Amino acid sequence: MSVLLIAEHNNKDLKPFTLNVISAASQMNNDVHVLLMGHNSDTVAKSISEVSGVKKVIQVDNPIYENYLAENYVPVILKNSENYSHIVSAANTFGKNLMPRVAANLDVSQVSDIIKVIEPDTFLRPIYAGNAFATVKSNDEIKCVTVRPTSFEPAPSTGGSAEIVKADAAEEFSLTKFIKKEEVKSDRPELGTARIVVSGGRGLQSGENFKLITAVADKLNAAIGASRAAVDAGYITNDHQVGQTGKVVVPDLYIAVGISGAIQHLAGMKESRVIVAINKDGEAPIFSIADYGLEADLFEALPQFLEELNKLNTIQK
User: Fold this and answer.
1) pLDDT of residue 316
2) Are strands 122-127 and 274-279 parallel, antiparallel or unpaired?
3) Do 129 and 20 share a domain, yes or no?
4) Predicted pLDDT of residue 182
5) Which of 75, 246, 106, 263 is nearest to 170 (CA)?
6) How much is the pLDDT for 33?
7) Taking Cα atoms as reference points, which of 261, 281, 278, 260 lies closest to residue 269?
8) What does the alpha-carbon distance between residue 158 and residue 155 come to, in Å, rounded to a whole number?
9) What is the chain's alpha carbon radius of gyration, rounded to the nearest angstrom?
10) Under a CB-based contact definition with an 8 Å cutoff, are residues 173 and 65 in contact?
11) How many domains is the chain partitioned into structurally?
């Protein structure tokens, strides 16, 4: 049987994490079908059909899917769920809102946030804020699975030639109505997919001081992250939060500034390839996982770091 993967998009572009999920789905079964619900989304359908590993694109085009509502997506997924052994999506805000509804309607147990496919019915997932790993086997006829995208390489966006099949919409859910969507526009890399992330914590002491993080991120073309303590204190908005209740990141370089390293934060970044920690508390837990640690006052260290980056930029020019 095949795998049904739910595409995340904005009707113009496919969200990058969908490529990572396609890669994971291909390890469950090499017959991967992608369900695309949207409006005027032919460009997205064509781009999915060209992704290596995708065998079929099921396109449902209707104005009611112009904006994402889980209540409208679920009936379409259920309608198209026959003959599939797996229903898969990313373990991000999109998937965490959508997949539990699908699993509940199918009366199956969801397997959440997998980081490895051991067998088509057996998966590895982190538990206890990433301090342990559980091997989970599902005996359900249909397996609802959410995938941690950063644990899988993205599938090549070229090389595929999947057929695009049109499918009918389902009845619109009348008790919920889309009002509006507010998005933060930024020229910075997206936090979840950035190669370099610079994160600040409670040690910055104020939102005004986050300009130091911004300055470093600008020089490195990096995304800006934050600990939950910094977000709760109002230093920065919660879309920058990294951790168990925020975003999981696996950049090539993660710079943690003024972050003590609570286990909830470590769960969201400890798989980073290189971790640099700057903290004046030499006993801070963040140093236990850091590849490079600097025990120093961040208000002295960051200006010096910026000065060196400016010198480097001058030499390169």
Assistant:
1) 64
2) unpaired
3) yes
4) 77
5) 75
6) 97
7) 261
8) 9
9) 21
10) no
11) 2
Encoded tokens for 275: 């971790």
Q: Of 166, 183, 204, which residue sits at a domain end?
A: 166
- Among 112, 146, 147, 144, smallest CA distance to 127 is for 112
Q: In this predicted structure, what is the pLDDT of residue 310? A: 87
The reported pTM is: 0.82
Which pLDDT score, from 0 to 100, does residue 180 have? Answer: 86
- Structural domain span for residue 62: 2-166
pLDDT at 225: 96
pLDDT score, position 317: 57
Q: Please give the Cα distance from 243 to 228 (Å, whole number).
A: 7
Q: Are 53 and 30 in contact (CB under 8 A)?
A: yes
DSSP state of 25: H
Q: Residue 22 to residues 95, 121, 193, 280: CA-CA distances in angstroms?
A: 14, 17, 16, 42
Please indicate, yes or no, if residue 181 is contained in any of the structural domains: no
| N residues, the chain | 317
147 and 208 together in one domain: no
Taking the C-alpha atoms of residue 183 and residue 240, their distance in angstroms, rounded to an integer, is 13
Q: Which residues pair with 124 in a beta bridge?
A: 116, 135
Positions of the chain with pLDDT under 70: 184, 316-317
pLDDT the model gives residue 188: 83
Pair (63, 203) in one structural domain? no
Q: In what order do the strands lie in the sheet with 132-137?
A: 116-119, 122-127, 132-137
My answer on whether 161 and 213 are in the same domain is no
Looking at residue 229, which CATH number applies to its domain?
3.40.50.1220
Residue 167 pLDDT: 95
Give the other-Cβ count within 10 Å of 301's Cβ. Answer: 18
